[in-house]
Amino acid sequence: MTGQAAVSFHQRIYGDIERRVLNGELRPGDRIPSEHELMAVYGCSRMTVSKALTALAAAGMIERRRRAGSFVARPRIERTVMEIQDFAVEAARAGQSYAYRLLARRIERLAEAEGSAFPVPAGTEVLRLDGLHQIDGVVMALERRSVMLDAVPHARETDFTTTAPGRWLLQQVPWSDAVHVISADLADAATARLLGVDKGSALLVLDRETRQTALTITQVRLIHPAALYRFVGHFNPGNG
Amino acid sequence: MTGQAAVSFHQRIYGDIERRVLNGELRPGDRIPSEHELMAVYGCSRMTVSKALTALAAAGMIERRRRAGSFVARPRIERTVMEIQDFAVEAARAGQSYAYRLLARRIERLAEAEGSAFPVPAGTEVLRLDGLHQIDGVVMALERRSVMLDAVPHARETDFTTTAPGRWLLQQVPWSDAVHVISADLADAATARLLGVDKGSALLVLDRETRQTALTITQVRLIHPAALYRFVGHFNPGNG
DNA sequence: TAGTGGTCTAGACCACGGG
DNA sequence: CCGTGGTCTAGACCACTAT
After folding, report:
1. CA of A26 to C1' of C16 (A)
2. Closest residue in chain A to residue B73, using alpha carbons only
3. Which end of chain B is more exposed for a tag (fewer CB within 10 A), N or C?
4. Shortest CB distance from A181 goes to which of B18, B232, B236?
5. Structure confidence by residue, pLDDT tens digits, A102-130
6. Could you tell me the sign of the dihedral formed by the alpha carbons of A43, A53, B58, B206, in that order?
7. pTM for this entry
């Protein structure tokens, strides 16, 4: 009964669940079948099921609670890089007020591939959103975002005047992956005015492209006054 | 025989090996006792030993090879963040020449805690190293480093005139962990001259403090011309 | 209280690859 | 060849907690 189909049994179980989570079939908070149920489904021992689920938990894809069951976890990105850019959370933690203010909203159809570092298929309909993140009235970031409407059609009817699109998108398309590029620049006149800093002052810039299975969902550029913002990351051999 | 001493058996095995690796008692490339040997040492079943070793392998701390055994892996930091800052590797990959040039070397004894973001115990003897990283003759970074001599005494007699201290330190003290802070700044006159850029141009700055079990090993500030350098990171829910 | 995950056992067969 | 890791079993007892 020892299935040896190139991949092991626990890898098969791991992969099946991983795929369903990445597909969006299973969403954060959803319950995963119990070990006993998976035993029956796959026709293997509980140890084997346990090995797969334990590995999924170690990878941060699911969370396991006694008596309750196993559940799809929130995306890891939300707990790492997002953590330092979720202004609402940061503000709340420090007892400060947070506000998002929409500056501009328009829908464009891309004639050519994007001029940025990220390639975008031409002809895609894109929702452009510019906005400011403010903490206690101070502008922490200028956000320039593009949302691919074929990937996230609901964005067309969503009101972003006071809701930051970042968190909304995370709820729409969980378990994406992302490429981050961090760079520095000088403030031009227009950017300086929006951020409330001097022209020529230093800026810390984060570009992020979020994808789901090779489909681009959104691109965002977060432009921070260097005096107000830095990125902090902790790395160790054990957990990256 | 089911040991239940607050931590489980496989956690105990995992922790013991992890500690020996972080202590430096086990160094990269060293062989770890086989599963059968660990069974005897801990008096438990092979499955339990296997669970610990499998988890260590998943965490990237060890590598396992059939017939050969299990071995301490190279630090993960070297494969993630370090990767984008190892100028020698980057240059070699692009077929370009790399050079490190030492600018200044001195030994100081700290009277007060460091003025930087990182706290450093006073009274520590510190080796200060300033140097330039050049690729094809172009300065990619100005490095200002402090090496704690109590943590790395060999640094006192080491020649850093052409050897970049980063790689050397990695070999001396493997399996450290680190905190990174990325920020942006404007070039003052002195820095601009060293980097070969205009005064007031944008700089991308990386501060890193490397530790080993709460003991600071080194602090480094890498100052990059923003026009020449950016940090790229890939994140996904599976592996961070 | 009952269901869930957490842990552990004492075996077993297999695949791989270094000696 | 044969020691090593890779996988799997069919149980078992326990800890936790939602109900």
Report:
1. 37
2. A237
3. N
4. B232
5. 999 999 998 766 545 456 677 889 999 99
6. positive
7. 0.84
